[in-house]
Design goal:
Elements: E1 2-3, E2 9-12, E3 19-25, E4 31-33, E5 54-55, E6 61-62, E7 66-69, E8 72-75, E9 84-85, E10 98-103, E11 107-116, E12 127-136, E13 141-149, E14 153-154, E15 158-159, E16 177-179, E17 184-186, E18 199-200, E19 212-213, H1 223-228, E20 232-236, E21 246-252, E22 258-264, E23 268-272, E24 296-300, E25 315-316, E26 322-332
Antiparallel strand pairs: 1-2, 2-3, 3-4, 5-15, 6-9, 7-8, 10-11, 11-12, 12-13, 13-26, 14-25, 16-19, 16-21, 17-18, 17-20, 20-23, 21-22, 22-26, 23-24
Length: 334
Amino acid sequence: MLSSPVGVEIDFIATGGALIEVRTPDRTGHSANVVLGHAVLAAYRDQSAFLGVVCGRYANRIAGAAFALDGVRHELHATDGTSCVHGGRRGWDKARWQVRMRRTDDADCAVLTHQSPDGDEGFPGAITARMTYSLYRDGRFEIAYHATTTRPTVLNLTNHSYFNLAGEGCGAINDHLLHIPSTHFTPSDAQLVPTGEIAQVAGTPFDFRHERPIGERLNAEHPMLRAGRGYDVNYVLKTTNSAELRPAARVRDPQSGRTLDILTTEPGFQFYGGNMLDGTIQGKSGTRYAQYAGFCIEPHHFPDTPNRPEFPSARLDPGQVFTSRSLYVFGVFD
């Protein structure tokens, strides 16, 4: 467990590096877990909802479960229709990561490492990956990725925690207030695969440039809302790769007063409203997670980037180093 003097605590396990608890105070000082998690730890080995885990080698979708690199076609495993989602049948979310704890003057840290062999789930290159969880003294939580490869490949990593700022098991998140400063998103088709277009959020239900409740326009007439049974959309933060941290989203819960700000170096992120939760998962509190029981903000490269050369590249070559950072800032408001 990682802890901070301001009351933020992070608990995780080696399987998938899953964040199983994130405890943070509300406006009265009462601390509660704000991420969804399985009641039984063994469930993380075979889950399909990706609660709390790292997703890789390629987070989100690769259309047709295949991509070409330098003229060579690489066949993957289709796990959602015809798409490969979050790395395949046994992606990095199922891997048992090696864990080493360390403490600095500024933070409690956990360094997780994983060796992925050449051809793992159809992806080329043997990858050495490192994921560092850092909980700073002021309560900021950072996830930093570092990876190298032996062959040209594609790589896209994210954390798939479901947040409910009212507290795990406290009902739907549709009254949470969401602010997303992004002006553009990537439209997707009926299979939730990007069309290749980068469109403006203005005039769509995906416009959260002014804070509004998540559920306010959940029933709006839009084909992407129907296809995803709610929000499952990739927002554009930048169209080039850079190490600059940018604000992705801010979420506030009027009930508890908790807030969450997420910043990332990634070019985009997926906002997912827990649409496919259906009551079959029993949570840590004993509650079964119904639809919209938690939301995900998944910083990453755009979906299907290996098949979309117009998107910021997810390619990683030998001699290069993949790096990525995402920062989670917890707070309260009156």
